[in-house]
Write a structure and sequence with these properties.
single chain; about 400 residues; alpha/beta; 4-stranded mixed β-sheet; two-stranded parallel ribbon; 8 strands; globular
Amino acid sequence: MSRPSDSKEEKGVNQNGDPGGHLSVFTNVHTAAVSPETRLLSSFKKDPHSSKVYLAGREYFSEEGQIFVPPHVGRIKQQINADPTLSPEYPSTLGLPEFTRRATEFTLGKRSRAIVENRVLGVQTTSCTAAVRLGAELLRLWCDADVSSAWCGPVYLASLCDDSLAGIFQAAGIQDIPSAHYPTGADLSQKDWTCLTKLLMKWRLFPFLLLPSQALCYGNLERDAWPVQYCASLGMELLCAQSFSHCFGLYGEAVGHLLCVLKHSSVLLGVQTQAEKIIRSLWAQPSAGGARVIATVLSNPADLVEWQVEVKRIVERLMLIRELLREKLRLLGSPGCWDHLIQQHGLYCCTGLNGQQVEFLSKRKHVYLLPGGCLNVSAINSRNVDYIAESIHLALTTSL
């Protein structure tokens, strides 16, 4: 590969204090903008305040403030690591077959018509973000297959806490992304989903669903996936990006999954081979460790029951925290109604605080939320809930 320039004059330029050195090929590479989340974490780490609280993390934290791994999952990991019979070879491009099969069944249901008719593809990915990227690449190839040029949008986003989705679609070559809609965070009821799917079908919109913390809404993988099951039961084609990191505590071995529900089994092979081609250029093969743990739990009834009990405890604690925070704000006389805190479910919560109030919390009270006012419920515990509630109350009542 030739350098941008190799003139005699340039050879004398001392770019790095090395006489006679050449200019770096990266000389004109500009520093990328730092993501809001990275900037927020950096500010938190530099903050010397003793009562500072970071509510923008992505992991599930225990009451003690530590990243939590369900005990039964930890035991299974140890058993797998000690098993001398397991092969150390890479899994296939599409991932560990037992994992993708179980993940697909627990999302759609074993009796799903789409599974019976062999028009479903499950792909193990390196994360939920990777699943979104793979899905975006597939959409760019096929969503407008009737015209000569590849489809490039629009994509309408609805994301509670993740501002990286637009960049993922843009990286896949989809540029037409209108301003994202940030909802209140209240979960849609089954009646709401029924109305929404009618609109999706009427306007011929393609649903791309995200389950970033599956099982942590209601404590059940299948119940959390009801919208996916409902859309599939109507015969809709869809994509669904999933993460199993939160509910299994596998953050270091991030395990994602892309579920593709197709109209006809005749297109399955084409989708599969194109997915394999795309994956080879992105990450080649996913890791086997985390997927093997999940497959073991989902395949063994005894392991599954024990894991579900642990997940249920997590969900109950999240709901107790929501109720406690709402009650604290009510007793303080904080303006507004805070019932939305308990109407939402899962790991994250949209507080409804605006940008100025979020900035007040970080700069004046050392409480760090995501810019959109979203927070990680599990980061609240008995030691900091009073301080957090009082800080939110001040953010609402202080003239900014």
